[in-house]
Amino acid sequence: MNLEELKKQIEVLLFASSEPLSIGSIKSALRMEKENIIKDALNKLSEEYISSKGLFIERVQGGYQLFTKPEYDYLIKKLMDEERGYNISRAALEVLAIVAVFQPTTKPEIESIRGISSDGVIKHLVDIELLKITGRLSTPGRPILYSITPEFLNYFHLADNKELKKLYEKFSKKFNENYTYPDKDQTHNRKG
Questions:
Q1: Cβ atoms < 10 Å from Cβ of 147
Q2: Is residue 22 a contact partner of residue 63, using CB atoms and an 8 Å limit?
Q3: HEC secondary structure over 17-65
Q4: Closest residue by Cα to residue 168 from 116, 93, 69, 97
Q5: In the chain, what are the domain boundaries?
Q6: pLDDT by residue for the chain (192 residues), tens digit each?
Q7: Is 10 buried (19+), middle (13-18) or exposed (0-12) by CB count in 10 A?
C-alpha cells in the first residue's frame, strides 16, 4: 500500500473512533506488520492537518486522536452545549481543578476549599462524565471519593495524569513566585 492510501485509511480510523487509537489498534485494523510505517504516515498526516485543516492529531492516553484546533473550539462547545447540555461554568471549573489536584477527594474537602456548597456542580460533572465516583473513605459518614475521568483528560487535551501533574507543578510554582503568604502556616501543604 502506498503512503497516500495509508494516510487516508488512518484518517478514516481516527475519524471513526471516539477513543484514542494506539499504534497497535491501527496496525491490527489495517492488518499491517510494521509499526514504523504507520508512525511515519501518522506524522505526515499530522503535519498536513496542522498546516491546512481545522483539526489536528494529538497523542493522548497512549494513542492518537483527532481534535479541533483551539481557534475553532467555540463551534464544538456551542454544538455540545446544544446537544448534550455540556455546560462548564466557573464553579464547575473550580471543582474540576480541585479534584484534578487532590484526587481522590471528597465533597467536604471540595467545599472546604471553595467555601461554598458544591452538590449540584459535582452531580453535573458526574453526569457529563468529567468526574467519577472512585470509592468511599472509611471514616464516619463514609464520604464518596471523586476522581477525574478519561473524558476529563480528552476535554482538556491532556495525555495522562502525569501531564496534569506537570501542569499543576508549573502553575503552583508560578503562583508561589508571585504570591506572598500572610503567614507561612496558612500555606496548603497537601500534595497533588
A1: 17
A2: yes
A3: CCCCECHHHHHHHHCCCCHHHHHHHHHHHHHHHHHHCCEEEEEECCEEE
A4: 97
A5: 3-69, 87-186
A6: 899 999 999 999 999 888 899 999 999 999 988 889 999 999 999 999 988 888 899 888 889 998 888 888 888 777 766 655 456 788 888 899 899 988 899 999 999 988 888 988 999 999 888 999 999 999 988 999 999 999 888 888 887 777 777 777 777 666 666 555 444 444 344 444
A7: buried
List the grid coordinates of 67: 481534535
Task: Provide the residue count of the chain.
Answer: 192
DSSP single-letter state for residue 1: -
How many CB atoms are located within 10 Å of the residue 69 CB?
12
Tell me the whole-structure pTM to 2 decimals: 0.50
In contact, 127 and 146? CB cutoff 8 Å: no
Only one residue has cell 485543516, namely 53
Domain 87-186, classified CATH 1.10.10.10, yes or no: yes
Tell me which of 3.30.450.20, 3.40.50.2300, 1.10.3810.10, 1.10.10.10 is the CATH number of domain 3-69: 1.10.10.10
Give which of 11, 4, 36 is closest to 23, Cα–Cα.
36
All three cell numbers of 188:
496548603
Distance between CA atoms of residues 126 and 131, nearest Å: 5
